[in-house]
Write a structure and sequence with these properties.
Largest sheet: none
Number of strands: 0
Distance between the termini: 30 Å
Length: about 80
């Protein structure tokens, strides 16, 4: 994650606080927070997939061309 000891310490403190809050909060609040977090992660992933899909399609097309020519498939960054 990071080699900065201060950042790591702050991260650990935040994790301990969140775990404590999760253990004393009402179950409904904990589940709602978990659902919200999962929704935000899914939204971020969908956006990133949409951004990266043109690159992925170029890589797949290049792979298929190489495979069709029965060439040993390799990834050449400059080509894509």
């Amino acid at each position: 994650m990071t080699k900065n000891k201060t950042t790591l310490f702050i991260f650990r403190v935040i994790v301990v606080i969140v775990v404590y809050i999760g253990s004393v909060a009402e179950l409904g609040v904990v589940w709602d927070t978990a659902d919200l977090s999962m929704g935000i992660m899914a939204l971020i992933n969908i956006i990133v997939i949409a951004i990266l899909s043109p690159i992925a399609m170029r890589v797949i097309k290049d792979y298929m061309k190489q495979k069709k020519r029965r060439k040993r498939t390799q990834y050449l960054e400059l080509k894509i």
